[in-house]
Amino acid sequence: PQKSVRDMKKNGIVAILSLMLIGKLFSIFLCALVIGLVFRRYAVEMLKVATSQPLVEIGRGLVVLIVLPVVSVILLITILGIPFGILGLLSFFAILIFASVVAPIILGSIVHKLIFKPEEYQISWKTILLGVVLYQLLVFIPFVGWIGTFLLCLLAIGVMMKMKWNVLKEWR
């Protein structure tokens, strides 16, 4: 039997979406590997901060997520604030992208500790792969999955901001 054009279009769309999903999975995995293994000390410190007070870090992430774009847009209104407003918006988008890469590292290490019960949290390619796969699968759970990924991203943003704040305090 001959396939209709409609079936061929449907199969093409499914194939393209599947390739995009696999590409996203690999790109997040590679970025997370670089952060987790090349910048190991940073990743371990991030994990310690995330697991010590997760609710505080989620709150900090929420504050940054709300305040940074609002302040940046307000700065865009004034002539002198335009460069700072643009810089604020660019940093906001960079933070969102970076958080979507850091969140799977945190998730993988926490789930690995819950399942295998090692003494300390570990960061390896296995925990990073576990985190990336779980993070991607979490999106497909209706309602709860989106909330989970959002909270993980808030946690990652909060952790990153706390670490940057600590660096600034040491700089003085």
Low-confidence segments, ≥5 residues, pLDDT <50?
Answer: none
* Average pLDDT, all residues: 91
**How do the helices and strands follow one another from N- to C-terminus?**
HHHHHH
Q: How is the biggest beta sheet arranged?
A: none
Instruction: Label the structural class.
Output: mainly alpha
How much helix, percentage-wise, in residues?
A: over 70%
Radius of gyration: 19 Å
Overall shape: it is globular
- End-to-end span in angstroms? 75 Å
**Beta-strand level of the residues, as a percent range?**
under 5%
**Total beta-strand segments:** 0
| Individual helix count | 6
What are the key terms here?
single chain, mainly alpha, 172 residues
Descriptive account of the structure:
By secondary structure, the chain is mainly alpha-helical. The protein contains six helices and no strands. The radius of gyration is 19 Å and the shape is globular. The termini are far apart.
